[in-house]
Amino acid sequence: MNWLPAFTLGLLSGGAIVFILFLFLRQDQEEMLSKKQKKDQRTKNIMLKAVQYRLTQGPEIVTIGGGTGLSTLLAGLKSYTRNITAVVTVTDEGGSSGRLRNEWGVLPPGDIRNCLVSLAEHDSSLNSILNFRFDRGQLAGHNLGNLILLATTELTGDFRLAVEELNNLLAIRGRVLPVTTEAIIIAGQTSDGAIIRGELEIADKGFKLESVWIEPKDARPVPDVIASLDVADVVVLGPGSLFTSILPNLLIKEVSEKLLKIPAPKVYIANLMTQPGETTGMNILDHVEWVRRGLGDYPDYVIINTGKVPDKYLKPYRLSGADALLLDEKQEETLNQAGCKILKGDFLNITMTGTIRHNTQKLAETIIKIVREVRENL
Predict the structure, then answer these.
(1) How many CB atoms lie within 10 A of CB 350?
(2) Cα-based distances in Å from 293 to 56, 243, 288, 298
């Protein structure tokens, strides 16, 4: 018997059967994997919708200020609610914003850009794009985000509409509003009687100020700013530069009057450090007193950092004329007598570059706790 052909045929038949089985198994595995992927995606979508729903049910929070302090706070608050309105000052005169204001007559976009990025869903990616700074040619020193706001303003013919367009384009968790669309400047009188005008001069000699105001004094706020205050569960002032980020908003008469009328608690977040020139030699009580003068009353809450800045990080600040803002017993007693509820805690965060900043998550948690406390007492 010639067994070789029979053996070969059997081997090929067995191989064919194994190959067919392999294809079936592979198809089953692919179908199972596909089903698992679809199930995982459905689960992910359900969780995402649940998170989005929770955020839409979050408290109505209005923040007032400008600069890096406000954007730091917003980055934390967006984890708790989508109902955030960031009211931003428009008195910036420095850097790219100042140049665009002088050359194009547009309101300064820098602080608004920072707040938009902070409230965006994927802020890390947007940060690198919108904060890209040109280093050559006529665009040197300008941020891409500032130029986009300028272009949108030119297209719409209105700075407020331009900001609204970017609110929608970036699908941010909340909205950012300029406090006014009028070209205002901050001015003041120093202890020696000198009149100083503009953010740059104020930032240099703020510690000498006896009084401050905005020009024009009858500047009107954006209507949506007032509307947002009517429904606010809490209003947060700061953190940020006292004279150049917080007070310009409060010096708009309709804003301060509305803040006095609404039942929502007003929370002031004290800065971590003094600012050379602007608040040199001032303590926390001095800051709160200026807020009182702008607001017309003391804030209901004052959030104060008790975390100690390590000497190696504090030294560079002291060399530039800045120092840590701390609360002593005398200041605390005065604030208590004024009816301010003081919330103390370690809100300190040191960045990789040694920059002293507030801990955004701890700040946000504290704000949410205030809202819950107020609701429980209703």
Answers:
(1) 15
(2) 35, 12, 9, 8
Reading the block at residue 217, the tokens are 């004094």
Pairing of strands 234-237, 61-65: parallel
Which pLDDT does position 51 carry in this prediction?
47
Token pair of 84 as six digits: 């955030």
| DSSP three-state, residue 60 | coil
Q: What are the tokens at 258?
A: 């509305």
DSSP string, 53-120: HHHHTS--EEEEE-HHHHHHHHHHHTTT-S-EEEEE-----SHHHHHHHHHH-PPP-HHHHHHHHHHS
Between CA 362 and CA 378 the distance in angstroms is 25
Spatial contact of 370 and 234, defined as CB atoms under 8 Å apart: yes
* pLDDT band at residue 303 using 50, 70 and 90 as cut-offs: very high
Per-residue model confidence as pLDDT tens digits over 157-168: 888 888 988 888
Distance of CA 14 to the CA centre of its chain: 68
Tokens representing residue 198 in the block: 């503009």
DSSP, residue by residue, 293-320: HHHSS--SEEEEE-PPPPHHHHHHHHHT
DSSP element (H, E) containing 141? none
